[in-house]
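Sorry to interrupt, but I need a hand with the structure work. Could you add the entry underneath, on a fresh line?
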Amino acid sequence: MELKVRLDGAKCVSTHIGSHEIRTDQPVKAGGGDTAPAPYDLFLASIATCAGFFVQSYCENKQIDTTGIGITLNVQRDPASKRVTTFVITIEVPPHLPEHLQQTLCRVAAQCAVTKTIESQPEFVVQAKALGD
């Protein structure tokens, strides 16, 4: 899979993924115009929406009504280093949903491909390539 990035200027950067374009910007306090989510916000959204996709798919397959089900992602950081220490995914469920199903939804959400990728700690390779090479 290859993503193509375009530097749009004024803190805006776009990425082309297949037939889609995702725009990013920085908040005003970081010198941007806040016209789109910041890249880190998209990273966090990918974790939450991936968990949501897995929960929704499971519910649809089991014909479970998703009305009242929501997902919240909270990020915990080390106060000294400001580094992320924990991602907490909370699945909000209506009160009538049985406990065993709540636990199943937690297991299903934990199968998210984004989460699994982060947990596997992939290597990052950053390289430069001269045009025409």
Summary: The chain has a mean pLDDT of 96. The domain at 39-121 is CATH 3.30.300.20 (GMP Synthetase; Chain A, domain 3). The beta strands are 4-9, 12-17, 20-24, 70-77, 84-92. The chain has two domains: 1-37, 39-121.
